[in-house]
Design brief:
Elements (H helix, E strand, L loop, with lengths): L2 H20 L3 H14 L4 H14 L2 H14 L4 H13 L3 H14 L4 H17 L10 H7 L1 H4 L5 H12 L4 H4 L3 H11 L37 H18 L3 H14 L5 H13 L2 H17 L4 H17 L3 H14 L3 H22 L2 H17 L2 H14 L4 H13 L3 H14 L4 H13 L3 H14 L4 H15 L5 H9 L2 H7 L2 H12 L3 H5 L3 H12 L7
Helix pairs in contact: 1-2, 1-3, 2-3, 3-4, 3-5, 4-5, 5-6, 6-7, 13-14, 14-15, 15-16, 15-17, 16-17, 17-18, 18-19, 20-21, 21-22, 22-23, 22-24, 23-24, 24-25, 24-26, 25-26
């Protein structure tokens, strides 16, 4: 078959792919582009389009491979480098993305998309390296394009201030009291430090509008914008007003007109998504956010706006209690631009998901099976394996006090006394009348030679069951051990300092001063003992053998 006979079918498949991609059906688009490539494997446009489809689908490595093929087939075509750089950005390979933009500009020095892409990438790398935000390459372009700072640029003193901060960033702290500096930082960092973000309104319903001010609102300076962009901005403002009044249908009409007038601006699409979010139509909200991200990528939009679109998708899934999907998109947002609000929301979703998974894992029957296996291993003296089975049993039934008691017995055998104490305390919390929890806790304390505490716990066990032989014998043992105590001072100190409570007492400067006073003047002790908190701490140090009073 000749190339001439192939072309009509290739073009037909390409158009089908383009149509599917525009409607968001990436799988269908990839299928048509792939079929076209089989017929014409030297067509650089097909690889470029399929790269865009893979990127939209989230398969960034494949998007990069197709973009590389595009560049290989037509190295003088700027679009191929844009595709490659975008894929590298998705893969967080920012230095390579920057080099790709530079390489593309060698072939097409006047390509505006490559120039803007390079500027954005340099700014992004600068921020990642914690460089001065006033030193970004497109500083004045950003300030001119934002209505908050556009009017300030006509003031020579403002320009002088910017240049001063550009050359001496160390003076920023001293200038923060100047409201112009705070406003400028908000524009450069992509946040509004004074009020809510008007462009991308929201993850929650807006507050009621404030009473109208008497002063006339100054008209924005738009002389530098094309007519279609001016009209689009006006439609957006009308949409914002309707949105704030919760007149969602009118807001959608204005945002749609703005999008038609300026199809390269993703903000109008994310504003539509905000409306559907408020209406609870989350599928439509997500569809529009994906569309906005694609438009933003194509037109080298600020990555903060991309991050907001991803965050809104995450919020829509959070509303539907689909926490796994929410986390996925929150992380995509954080990869673009890290903000405290999104990070907090992501952590909240992770916590809920972890709790859900923990609850879903509970199975009392499987817990009994694991407990039985643990008992068998314990009887054989295989304490590490027994501990593993008891731990699995606890995961399957975390409210069974006896499982913590059994694992505490393993920890005691393995000389992990602090872990044994922790399990005993959880056992007692879950079942305060379960005597084994007390005797095992006392045994761990006895093994640590903390006889006073051990006797207290044995005493609690005897209060529950006065005939408990284990508690009675344990109490007598501790009493005799304390009476006959004649430890090496170094051993006493080492054992005592392993106790977290002792560590805390000895690290307290006030207690250290009191102990020094007691050494120099024993009479000072009686005064300090009048304070019950200090008396308790001194008693603890006496119990572990660190100090003695004669």
């Amino acid at each position: 078959m000749s190339r001439r006979r192939k072309h009509p079918q290739v073009n037909e498949l390409k158009e089908k792919g383009n149509k599917a991609l525009s409607s968001g059906n990436t799988a269908e688009a990839i299928k048509h582009y792939s079929e076209a490539i089989k017929l014409d494997s030297s067509n650089h446009v097909l690889f470029s389009n399929r790269s865009a489809a893979y990127a939209k689908k989230g398969e960034y490595q494949k998007a990069l491979e197709d973009a590389c093929k595009t560049v290989e087939l037509k190295p003088e075509w700027g679009k191929g480098y844009s595709r490659k750089a975008a894929a590298l950005e998705f893969l967080n390979r920012f230095e390579e993305a920057k080099k790709t933009y530079e390489e593309g500009l060698k072939h097409e020095p006047g390509n505006a998309q490559l120039k803007e892409g390079l500027q954005n990438m340099e700014a992004r790398l600068a921020e990642r390296n914690l460089m001065n935000p006033f030193n970004m390459p497109n500083l004045y372009q950003k300030l001119e394009s934002d209505p908050r700072t556009r009017g300030l640029l006509s003031d020579p003193s403002y320009r002088e201030l910017i240049e001063q901060l550009r050359n001496k960033p160390s003076e920023l702290g001293a200038k923060l009291k100047d409201p112009r500096v705070m406003t400028t930082l908000g524009v450069l960092l992509g946040v509004d430090l004074a009020s809510a973000d008007d462009d991308d309104e929201a993850m929650s319903p807006p507050p009621p509008p404030p009473p109208p001010k008497k002063e006339p609102k100054p008209e924005p300076m738009e002389e530098d914008l094309p007519e279609n962009k001016k009209q689009a901005l006006k439609e957006k403002e009308l949409g914002n007003e309707a949105y704030k009044k919760k007149d969602f249908e009118t807001a959608l009409e204005h945002y749609n007109k703005a999008k038609e007038l300026d199809p390269t601006n993703m903000t109008y699409i994310t504003n539509q998504a905000a409306v559907y979010f408020e209406k609870g139509e989350y599928d439509k909200c997500r569809e529009l956010c994906e569309q906005a991200i694609e438009v933003g990528r194509e037109n080298r939009e600020d990555y903060r706006q991309i991050a907001k679109a991803y965050a809104r998708i995450g919020n829509s899934y959070f509303k539907e209690e689909k926490f796994k999907e929410a986390i996925q998109f929150y992380n995509k947002s954080l990869a673009e631009h890290r903000t405290p609000d999104v990070l907090k929301k992501c952590q909240q979703a992770e916590k809920i998901l972890k709790e859900q998974e923990k609850l879903a894992y509970i199975d009392p029957q499987l817990a009994l099976e694991e407990k039985s296996k643990g008992n068998e291993c314990f009887q054989k003296g295989d304490y590490p394996q027994a501990m593993k089975h008891y731990t699995e049993a606890i995961k399957r039934n975390p409210n069974d006090a006896k499982l913590y008691s059994n694992r505490a017995a393993c920890y005691t055998k393995l000389l992990e006394f602090q872990l044994a104490l922790k399990d005993c305390e959880e056992c007692i919390r879950l079942e305060p009348t379960f005597i084994k929890g007390y005797t095992r806790k006392a045994a761990a304390l006895e093994a640590m030679k903390d006889y006073t505490k051990a006797m207290d716990v044995y005493q609690k066990a005897l209060e529950l069951d006065s005939n408990c032989k284990e508690a009675s014998e344990g109490y007598q043992r501790c009493l005799m051990s304390q009476y006959n105590r004649n430890d090496n001072p170094e051993d006493v100190k080492r054992r005592a300092m392993a106790d977290p409570e002792v560590q805390q007492i000895m690290s307290d400067p006030a207690m250290r001063l009191i102990l020094e006073q007691m050494q120099k003047d024993p009479q000072a002790l009686s005064e300090h003992l009048k304070n019950p908190v200090i008396a308790q701490k001194i008693q603890k140090l006496m119990d572990v053998g660190l100090i003695a009073i004669r």
